[in-house]
What does this fold into?
Amino acid sequence: RKNEIINNFVYGHSSDEYLENIIPDKEKIREALAILFGWFRDLILVKLGVDGIRLINLDRLKDLEKLKGQYSFDELEETIAQIVKTSQSLEDNFNMKIALTLIKEIIWRK
It folds into this structure.
């Protein structure tokens, strides 16, 4: 499921159907946010040149290497901040469709 989440958020620009499938299930949303947090954390580490052994997504190192030039550190920080904010909003029963769509928009801003 990890790769499905990464593929739909990071590579699947028009994955509205995927969002519709996970929105009713808080556990799926929690899982997606945790995986996205790890992905963008890894992207920061790759940009910094940290040894790959420290990566959560070592199996996708080639993808991380390809993406590292597409985001500035500020953009990565903004993406992670939105993921954290969305995680907090999940507990407040905030509209997850809006929050998850916002994360996708930040990711796809380029």
Notes: The chain has a mean pLDDT of 87. The longest helix spans residues 26-48.
